[in-house]
Amino acid sequence: MSSQKEQLSPEERQKRLQEEHYAKQVAVRDAQLAKLRQQAKQAAKRKSPATRRDVTTRE
Description:
Structural class: mainly alpha
Distance between the termini: 58 Å
Strand content: under 5%
Number of strands: 0
Number of helices: 3
Order of helices and strands: HHH
Radius of gyration: 22 Å
Shape: rod-shaped
Low-confidence stretches: none
Mean pLDDT: 84
């Protein structure tokens, strides 16, 4: 596979590097969102329904 990358034009190589970087950023973001969702779920279980309603209705 490295011989394939050596044959790429500088523009194509840059494009692929950017795509790989973007894909990694998206994967990290998705992992962070999954962790936050899990934390929110656990926090919701610990709170009473009245407390949860008070937190969500901020006027």
